[in-house]
Amino acid sequence: MGITIVKSYLKKESGLNVSAHLKLVQISKRFTRDGAPLPVLDGVDLEVQPGEFVALIGPSGCGKTTLLHIIAGLIPPDSGEIYLNDALVPHARSHVAYMQQKDLLLPWRTALKNTLLGPEIAGEDLKRVEAHARQLFEEFGLAGFERAYPAQLSAGMRQRVALIRTLLSRREILLLDEPFGALDALTRAELHQWLLKAREKFPQTTLFVTHDVEEALKLADRVYVLSERPARVKAMITVSLKRPRDPTHPDFVALKAELLHALRSP
Question: Which domains does the chain have, with CATH numbers?
């Protein structure tokens, strides 16, 4: 019952669709370093269907975060086109919720108050939003920690609070930039299961950046592989395995070998 109410909050009350179609065409970007041009993205084509979970993987420093910044409207591309639901747009800023690797929780606000930050800034009815937030705390195993401060929470709990905050922003597109990258292996595995459970209930269009091949294959419907900087798309791999996915299963192992080959190839 609680999830149905939260879905209503995400969709009907906001006037937004639960998910959106995102398409990038020939996105290029360069910066300047020490007076010299530094090409970062070189004609990247990428597409995420409504409700789809797509992982983006590539070498460190190849431009994955830069691509998310462009989608979110934090920086403009030098060239290329962005389409949202088949309409050409300069960026998808008002349709994007962006969760970075660091949880960025405000230390002087409780866990619950941190999740209400976006709606509070937007001037929404906080009593109504708080009711939805409390339902999410219960659903995501955080009941009883609403009044805890970030310093009193484990790293995994802080990441869950950060994702609740992201969901409550009511955007059709989620950009997740290595949200589990700083966690230990056990906590990361637990959060993989939690995120997959959340995905069943909150089917927003999701673009997930990771360095971890197994993480990409466990979570994503498709995986885009970027080259070394300046980044271009080297491969796109569809992951049709049923969830939950066993990393020791022969089909998973074969996909992992294919993905590693794509990463290592010129």
Answer: 2-264 (3.40.50.300)
